[in-house]
Amino acid sequence: MKKIKKDKGYILLIVIIISAVIALVGAGLAVMNKLSFLSTRANVTFNKVQKAAHYGIMEATRRIVENGGLCEEGIVENTINVDGIDVNITTSRRGLVCSIRSEATSGNAKAVLVATIQGFYGIGTYTVKGQVNANIYGGLVSGCDSDNNCSIPGFIASGSINVTTQTGSCEEVDDSGVFGSPPTKPNVNFYDLVPLAFNANCFYELLTILETEDSWEGYPMGLGSNPLWKDENGTSRQDIVFDKGNLTSCPNPGEVDEAGLIMGDMSVDFPQVPSISPSCRVDRDKDLTLNLTTMSVSVPGEPSIDLSNCTELLINSGTKTLQINGKASQIKYIYTTNNSGINISGAENGTLINNATSEVEINSSFDPFVVYSRGEVTLNNVSFIRVVSLNNINIIYPNVSNSTLITEEDIVNNSNNLNLVDVNIFAQRLLFGSNTAINIRGGMLYLYTLADSNRRNNTVLNGCWYNNNCAWIGRDLRSANIGTADNPILLFLVNSATYIRNTDTVNINAVLFGQGVTYLTWSNVDTQNYRGILVRNFPYSESLDINFGSGVSLQFDYGIINTLNQNYWFVRKFECIKDDPLPYAQTIQTLHSSY
After folding, report:
1. Residue 101 within any structural domain of the chain
2. Judging by DSSP bridges, how do beta strands 167-168 and 177-179 pair with one another?
3. For the chain, how many structural domains are there in total?
4. Type and span of the H or E element at 188
5. CB 327 within 8 Å of CB 306
6. What pTM value is reported for the model?
7. Alpha carbon of 363 to those of 287, 360, 389, 395: distances in Å?
8. Domain span at residue 105?
9. Are the beta carbons of 511 and 491 closer than 8 angstroms?
10. pLDDT tens, 222-271?
């Protein structure tokens, strides 16, 4: 009996152990079942947000393709709902590549997809941002370049476009009408037009480029910086400073409209006169002549003064004049603070810093020479010069080539024939004069007439019409050729209007970019022919009525744009529309989370 009781004890223990094991297994199965449920629910949630994100990509792609490949058409301003999932869609463009970002969220679950799709460059022959109301009732607007088998839209605007003349594709181009791929594109949601035309993300960046550029194919004498004056680190001297509207970087274009900011005005950073050794100074109240070849100064009635050991000189002629000629073996820096006038004739490898307000006259200079002057500068048949002046630059004899002219005031033409070849100009105004033949081939014009003023229509138009504050002014011109097909110009207008009157024909071959309130105005001009592209980055705060009629033609020229790209690297290289936009998207999943 005792043995039987002992066995019963063992059986009870075994039953308890087995029950515990069964309980543990059951609990484990319950936990596994719960984890499986949670995992399944998370997977279902993730699949839902992922599919919703894919839907966002497809919806943006559909909108872009149906609207001729315009990347901005893929932007969906409001969040869309896909079976209870919120989807936010944004796009951005770089060249022909349009990037689409689709973010789907549900509670704490999120999926982000990024796709790329082929679009077109996003720019037309005439592209304009602002409160636009365009009426085209005559003339010719064409985005078709048959010679290069290239087409872009004819007219793109962020507002309405009313066309009462014929429209068509590039196969239907006529002498008048609107043509392109497509002919017009109204109500485009543009934020900023700078990235369309330039390798810059905003106008702030573009101004920084213009300030610091010192040497390239199109500007051997530099733009804002002087390639012939470098510091010990090899950095070129920056001669100009732009007002950048208190910005320190590109603003968010969805929040700040740069075209409405007061920016783009220019000031000269004039060199300071350093301390110069007495052995390199000449002070006389006499007519002095500096010969850069011999590095000597001729003084009437005295032996010549040897300055051959000097790189920096200080020469003052008091109430008399200073003559400079000859070619130096290396760049010499010639400072003067007191003189009645300076004449430079055939001088080479020199940099003159005229810290007086006297006039500097440059004659027949054909190799590098740089002039900084607080007074006016007069040019007579020159090339390879760089002039930086706080006053007017006057052109007396007509030929200027391969040069850079910078002034806080005006470029004033006084000749009957103005011939500018590959000349880069920064000025408030370019005054053509009257009864003049204007021939400008190549180069760049940065005209900032009212850049320091409010971005208002009345400010710019009244300033030009009533106060002669126009970017350029020409009257009774015998001819006006501003750029050619083979040698076009890069033209910047900053918050300014141009004005030409009583002239038969005006021909402009250019990439013309307007920042702020800008206008091309005329009176009694029979025919105006524009080739290249016209881009107006108008402020959204101002209305813009465009009336395009007979006597005006604007034609896209692919060659002009790419010629300028070779001469000015920051001009964006354009691509042609040769095929319809393709609805193929390469998608990358960049983020997902599900809870």
Report:
1. yes
2. parallel
3. 1
4. none
5. no
6. 0.85
7. 18, 10, 17, 11
8. 2-120+586-593
9. yes
10. 999 999 999 999 999 999 999 999 999 999 888 999 999 999 999 999 99
DSSP state of 60: H
User: Contacts for 346-353 with beta carbons within 8 Å, 24 or more apart?
Assistant: 347/292, 348/292, 349/292, 350/292, 350/324, 351/228, 351/229, 352/324, 353/271, 353/273
Give pLDDT tens digits for 556-594.
999 999 999 999 999 988 766 555 555 555 555 555 444
The reply to whether 452 falls in a domain is no
Residue 546 to residue 550: CA distance in whole angstroms: 13
Which domain CATH number covers 66? 3.30.1300
81: in domain: yes
CA-CA-CA-CA torsion for 74, 79, 81, 84, nearest 10 degrees?
140
Q: Residue 353: which H helix or E strand, with range?
A: strand 348-354
Residue 66 lies in a domain: yes
Distances (CA, A) of 519 to 71, 242, 440, 458: 28, 22, 20, 11
For residue 517 the two structure tokens come to 């309130």
Contacts with 443 (C-beta within 8 Å, 6 or more apart), sequence order: 218, 420, 421, 422, 423, 424, 425, 489, 490
Which residue from 154, 156, 189 is spatially nearest to 536, judged by alpha carbons? 156
* Contact yes or no for 470/448 (Cβ under 8 A): no
Contacts of 49 by beta carbon, 8 Å cutoff, 6+ apart: 85, 104, 105, 106, 109, 110, 111, 592, 594
Q: Is 263 helix (H, G, I), strand (E, B) or coil?
A: coil
Residues in the chain with pLDDT values less than 50: 1-4, 31, 34-35, 37-40, 592-595
What's the CA gap between 590 and 578, in Å, rounded? 32
Q: Phi, psi (5° rounding) for residue 480?
A: -145, 100
Evaluate whether 117 touches 100 at the Cβ level (below 8 Å): yes
Q: Which residues pair with 548 in a beta bridge?
A: 136
List beta partners, residue 589. 113
3-state DSSP assignment of residue 582: coil
Vertex 336, ends 335 and 337: CA angle to 5°? 130
Report the candidate in 247, 149, 136, 221 with the shortest Cα–Cα distance to residue 183: 136
